Amino acid sequence: MTIELNRLARLARRLVGSPTAVLCVVGGDELQTASAGTFDRRADSFAREVATAGRAAVAADRIGVPLLSDGGRALGSLCAIGARFPFYDENDMQALADLAVSAVREIELIEKDALIRALVSCAADIPDEDAIADFDTLIAVGTPFPEDTGLK
Q1: Is the pLDDT of residue 140 over 60?
Q2: Sheet holding 62-68, edge to edge
Q3: Which of 30-44, 47-61, 84-98 has the highest mean pLDDT?
Q4: Which pTM value belongs to this model?
Q5: Bridge partners of 30?
Q6: Averaged pLDDT score across all residues of the chain
Q7: Which of 55, 81, 109, 126 has a Cα-to-Cα distance from 95 of 20 to 30 A?
Q8: CA 6/CA 150 separation, integer angstroms
């Protein structure tokens, strides 16, 4: 995970007053997480559920919002986990939703950076006359999570 995504997880924890916040990014079959506070399997499981469902979830001791691209693609989730009294409320959900916008933009920047790196690497290996055709192929196929995205 990047420093920026870890920072957003810490900010989420402070804003909603939870002992734990988890920001997860879905890439293929992998789930990569940035967490702040005490992390447990319950947090990982809930974050995965919110990311997979693609919609906000609320329970007595946890809340989560999905990280959705403008096109509706599920990128992950941002969740606050832990006992709190009174229960999480609408203000907490709105705080997570506001932070989720920043998280989505950061993830999209990481993906674009990885695509540019892949294009530059590919362009270095092909003759100039083939560069445009190969560029069009990469754009059409897309490379949302190459290995060197920095989300490890």
Answers
A1: no
A2: 30-37, 20-27, 74-81, 62-68, 57-59
A3: 47-61
A4: 0.75
A5: 27
A6: 80
A7: 109
A8: 12
- Residue 60 pLDDT level (bands cut at 50, 70, 90): confident
- Residues 104 and 76 sit within 8 Å (Cβ to Cβ): no
Of the candidate ranges 22-26, 92-96, 121-125, 128-132, the one whose mean pLDDT is the lowest: 128-132
The SS3 of residue 141 is: helix
Q: What number of CA atoms fall less than 13 Å from residue 18's CA on the CB side? A: 32
Are 68 and 104 contacting, i.e. CB atoms less than 8 angstroms apart?
Answer: yes
Using alpha carbons only, how large is the chain's radius of gyration in Å? Answer: 18
**Burial classification of residue 108, based on how many CB atoms lie within 10 Å of its CB (0-12 exposed, 13-18 middle, 19 or more buried):** middle
Task: Please enumerate in sequence order all residues whose Cβ is within 8 A of that of 107, keeping only pairs 6 or more positions apart, or say none.
Answer: 5, 25, 67, 75, 76
Tokens coding 126: 């092909």
What's the CA gap between 18 and 7, in Å, rounded? 15
User: Who contacts 87 (Cβ-Cβ below 8 Å, separation ≥6)?
Assistant: 60, 61
